[in-house]
Amino acid sequence: MMNTLARTVSRRAFTASRNASTLVVADLDGAAMGPSTLSAVTAAVAIGGDCTLLAVGDAAAAAECGTVDGVSKVLHAATDSYVGGETVASAIASAMESGSYTHIIAASSNLGKNAIPRAAAKAGASPVTDVIEVHGEDTFVRPMYAGNALAKVKNSDAVKFMTVRPTNFDKAGTGNSAAVEALSFGSADASPEFVSASQSQSDRPDLSAADVVVAGGRGMKNGENFGMLETLADKLGGAVGASRAAVDAGFVPNELQVGQTGKVVAPNLYVAVGISGAIQHLSGMKDSKTIVAINKDKEAPIFSVSDYGLVADLFDAVPEFTEKC
Ligand code: FAD
């Protein structure tokens, strides 16, 4: 079945500027650089001009940021405080005092979504969020109405603040050796206190970055049946995802939710099992390269975005699919 929804991926800039100077906020994961940083750098390179990475936190992660192609230098803001939106917004303000930037970019991650609006408010600017296409220095495309409409936004702020959706920008390469400079910065307006982190441990790849996602919906009937999808995901080397209905019913934890109010994914292969294909779910996965749907209702909307559709009872089809993989 052909995918009838417009694919929104555009990975090229139309008119890259030579005069732009972009500060990209790196997403750090402890002592490592998070992969969404690479997509944010690609967006900055599409705008054109110079690209500086701001790494708030660990020194080893900042050094890793220096390996990203297209980056001219890394500003490392060391801190003992918890690295939340407040801390990063304060570091952005200090970086803006020491350098002259036309754009401040972060990935649409938890950190980026927290820090960019705070930094923009401090600068009296309006952030453009969830950018999926760069059309030059001041014009960007972002989704609206759960991805039903795409808005082309022209931003006239002197310094443009934006978050970019990582799945819509290829990851920048590595191999560079950009210099790392220390950045001192003032204390955050409000200092959040770190209480504890609760993260489920899994040997499967991270849902947002996985090459293959096997997702289940309300049709799975209960959490135990998700074991079938885990077996299939493990065979395919993928992650497990879920619809909101499956999460709300308590089948699986919230962090597996894909969609408008969950994670946005764009793997090479997305297998939707017992998922009807509500627009809020589609907005989180429709940019997947190949979509396979298994549903017993041949009228289910998921089939309108599927490349391959199987009208079948999932309890027969999934074990057979897994056996043949
Ligand atoms: P259903 O719509 O109930 O579909 C279940 C499907 O399973 C059906 O198509 C049925 O035919 C099929 N099925 C049942 N049994 C079998 C079987 N044995 N074999 C094969 N197929 C079977 N939803 C999200 O997913 N993500 C979001 O981020 C999200 N955000 C939302 C935000 C807002 C503001 C709102 C209002 C809604 C949001 N939703 C989101 C909810 C969304 O509207 C749908 O309710 C939800 O996606 C439905 O999940 P589902 O497809 O699993 O369930």
From TrEMBL:
Copy out the cofactor comment. Answer: Binds 1 FAD per dimer.
Q: Which GO terms describe its biological process?
A: fatty acid beta-oxidation using acyl-CoA dehydrogenase
Task: Cite the InterPro entries for this sequence.
Answer: DHS-like_NAD/FAD-binding_dom, ETF_a/b_N, ETF_a/FixB, ETF_alpha_N, ETF_asu_C, ETF_asu_C_CS, Rossmann-like_a/b/a_fold
Q: Which GO terms describe its cellular component?
A: mitochondrial matrix
Query: Which SMART domains does the record match to this protein?
Result: ETF (SM00893)
Q: Which cofactors, if any, are listed as required?
A: FAD
Chief location category: mitochondrion
Ranges for domain Electron transfer flavoprotein alpha/beta-subunit N-terminal come to: 22-198
Q: Where in the cell is it found?
A: Mitochondrion matrix
Annotated keywords: Electron transport, FAD, Flavoprotein, Mitochondrion, Transport
Which Pfam families does this one have? Answer: ETF, ETF_alpha
Subunit: Heterodimer of an alpha and a beta subunit.
| Family from the record | Belongs to the ETF alpha-subunit/FixB family.
Q: What is this protein called?
A: Electron transfer flavoprotein subunit alpha
Source species of the chain: Triparma columacea
